[in-house]
Structure formats: structure tokens, C-alpha cells
Amino acid sequence: MPESFLNFKDSGCSSVEYRASPQRMFHQPSLHRSSVCSTFCTDGNVQECLLHITQEMASLGLSPIWVESTRPSELEVVAVLNCIHDLIQLHLKDLRALENMEVEQLKSNSSIDSLQITSTQLKEELEHYKRENNGLHERERQLQHKVKSLQHGLKNEKEEVQKLQSIISTRAGQYNHEMKRKEREFDKLKERLNQLLSDKKDRKQAIDVLNRVGRADGKRSLWKTEKTEAKREEEMYKTLLNDYDNRQRDLLQENAELKKILQQMKKDMVSILKSKKSTKTDKFERFQKEDDDDEEEDALNSTKHSVELFSDDAREQLTNGVRLQWRRLKNHMETLDSKVGELPDRDYSSVSGQTQEQEMESLKLEIQKCKDFIQTQQQLLQQQLSSPCGEEVTLLPTKMQQEKERLEGEWETLEEQRQIFDRERSNFTEAAIRLSHERKSFEENRAMWLKYHFLNLSPFPDSNKPEMQSSESPFSIFEAENNPGPAAENDFHSLCEGSRTKAVSASSEDRRQ
């Protein structure tokens, strides 16, 4: 805000600077102005006041009201009035400018308030949009997860459809094969019937039996006429067709039973394979799948071959043989699982790790004891060096020599123990490596034996079984599992002896201390 400055000098006083705002000056009461005027100009300082007023007027760019050449009493009234008018105009102009500035300030304050309100609203909208964006991102993530799950389900459904299509195609092939076979058999039966009929018609005359044996029911036999012959032929055809239908039903029933047996075998095989541990390699699983496929193919071939056997004895022998062999296989696998479960679950690697940690802890304790002993010796030496007196001064060199020799001997023993510890650690690591290799070879032998077992076990009694090598027998595997090897045993015994010697040496050192 503009301010007016009034500098005036009183007589016998220093100059005073008076500052006041235009509004304050405009609204001041008349009494105050009269007092200021009365104190500003007196009879004694008229010339000085005129000079001061002319200077102020010149600084404001107005015409002077008094010139030094004229006398003070001779003032120009017109110039004074003009100056007063100009001053009033300047004052009004300043007031208008002040009002305009106040209005502008109010406008700017209102605009600032409105801008602050809009900024807060925009911030709130931004936060709201951010929350909406986060919600949309979360929804998008959920939708993506749902899409992935649906894709996974679609993939599984496609696989199921492919499996069902393959099953339908195989069953359709089997059905077509059976239909063709039965059509061939039906054609053969037709040819046989036609042959029998043609043989009857072309049969030559022969001697007829006169005295026939009577019927079991006591009824009289009918006369041989064309009707009776036709009736008998019809009955014969009916019996043949009934026998054919019964035979077909028996074959279908037998086929269904064999399919049930095969399905049960598959379920048992899957359950046995699922009960195995997860330590088997992928190679063994591939071999196992191939063995299962081979066994299924052999079973299907054998069932196809057995379908051709029409006697009840052959069918019973087949089913009983399949069930007996499968029960043997199942019992054998259960015994193997029980044997494997009875074996200790601890790995040699874990045992070796525990023993190694124990040895490391014992050796660390021994090293710490030796360090403590050396520190105590050093403290004693420092005490002896710091307080020598009398005869001890003369005996000090000999004692120091003895202590030095003894410390050197102990240092040599410590070095030997460290070397022994390094050797034992290297031996221990080698033994652990050998144990891991032997365990790996044992797992490979076990996998090969299980492969051999699944390859050579057949559900039929007349299957040719190859001979089994002695290295792949279950007894050799069990012995290898219980006896990991002479090298490992020797290493273990050597480690035990080394730990005993270290314990004895540690106890002897404690006694010396």
C-alpha cells in the first residue's frame, strides 16, 4: 500500500519523519489535523516551512508556491490553490488505486480459495480414480486367474476326450473284429447246414431198422412223413441256433470276466506303484510303464487266445492261473514294502553329517582349551616379568627358558593334532563320498531288480521266465543295504579310534594343567 511521508523540523528539535497510510490520513479527525498544523508552522519558522513545502512540491512534480526571491508574505494564492487541488486529486487517485487494489486482492483471495477447493476436489477424485484403478487391476488379476483355471480345466477335458476317443476307437475295433469273426462262424454254420441238407437229399437207399428201442417217456414214435421230417429238421435248426446263442453268450460273459480281471490288475498295479517312495528315478518309472504296457499286451493276447478255447476246464484254468499269479505278485510286493519300511530311514549322509559335526565340535573345544592354556601361560610370564625381586631375578632366565621349551613342545603337539584333524576330516569326507556312491549303486541295483521282477512276473502259469542274475537278487540287495562296504566300515572304525585317541590326549592335557 502506498504511504505518504511528511518530514518536518521543529525549532530547537531534530527532524521527525511521519508516516501514515492514505486511509488513515483520509479518516483522521479535524482536531488532529489542526494540532498537526499548529505544531508544524509557527511565527518563527514560516520561511523554513515554506522552503520545506516547496521542496516537497518540487519532489512531487508540482509547481512551487514560493520563490526565495520573493518575501514570505507575498504568496501566490493561485499557485497555492492549484497545488492544493493537485494534492487533492493525487490523494483521490491514490484512494481509487487503493480501492482497486483491495478489490483485486479480494478477487485474488476468492480465486485462491476456489482454486484450493478445486485442488482438494481434484485430489479426492484422483484418490477415487486410483482406488477404482486398483479395484480394476484386482478384478483383472482375478479374471486372469479364472481364465488360467478354465484353460487348465479345458486342457484336462480335452485330454479326457482324447482318452475316451481312443478307448471308443479301440472298442469299436474290437467290436468289428468280433462281428467279422462271428459272421465267418455263421457262414461256416450255414455251409455246414446246407451240406447236411444236401447230403440228406442225395443219400442212397439203405436198410431201415425195424425194431427200434422205445422212447424213455413210453410214448409211441411218430410215422416218418414229410411233415415229421420237416419238423425234425426245424427242431434241429432251432437246437443248433440255441446252442450257437448259448455259446455266444458264454463267450461274451467270459470276455467280460476277463476284462474285469484285467481292470482289477490295472488298479492293483496303479495302487502298488503309487505306494512307492518318490526316490525312484524317471528312468525306472519309464521302464515300469513299458513293463505295464507289455504285461497288458501279453494279457490281452493271452485272453484273445483263451477266447478260442471253448471248454470250461480251459477257462477255469486261465482265470485261476491269472488270479493266483496276481495274488503272488501282490503279496511279494507287500513283503518288499514291509522290508523296506523295516529298514532304518536315516541316510548315511545324515549320519555322516551328524558324526562330522560332533567331531568338529570336539576339536573346536580342544583348540579352545589349548588357547586358554596358552593365554594363562602368557599372563604368568608377564606377571613374572613385571615383578622380579631378589633371587627370582637370578633364576628368571632359566625359568623363562624352561617355559619357552615347554610352550614349544605344546605348540608342536597342537600342530600334530591339527594335522591329525585335517587327515581325519579328509578321510571322513572320502568315506562320506564312498557311502553316497555305494548308496547310489544300491538304488540302481534295486531299480534293476524291480524292473526284472516286473518284466518276468506273468499272470499265466506257462510263461517262460528268464534266469535272474545273482547280483540282482533281493538277498544281495538286502545284504548290500545292511552292509554298505568294507571300505566304509574301515573308515568308520578309523574315525572312532581317532576320536578315542583325541579324547585320551585331551584328558592327559587336563591332568597336566
TrEMBL record:
InterPro entries (alphabetical): Adhesion_Centrosome_assoc (IPR052300), Afadin/alpha-actinin-bd (IPR021622)
GO cellular component: adherens junction; centriolar satellite; ciliary basal body
Spans annotated as Disordered: 284-304, 463-513
Origin: domain of life: Eukaryota
Coiled coil residues, start to end: 112-206, 241-268
Keywords: Cell adhesion, Cell junction, Coiled coil, Cytoplasm, Cytoskeleton
UniProt xrefs under Pfam families: ADIP
Keyword Cytoplasm among record annotations: yes
Location(s), subcellular: Cell junction, Adherens junction; Cytoplasm, Cytoskeleton, Microtubule organizing center, Centrosome, Centriolar satellite
Biological processes per GO annotation: cell adhesion; intraciliary transport involved in cilium assembly
Residue ranges, compositional bias (Acidic residues): 290-299
Protein family per UniProt: Belongs to the ADIP family.
PANTHER family given in the database record: AFADIN- AND ALPHA-ACTININ-BINDING PROTEIN (PTHR46507)
Protein name stated in the entry: Afadin-and alpha-actinin-binding protein
Organism: Knipowitschia caucasica
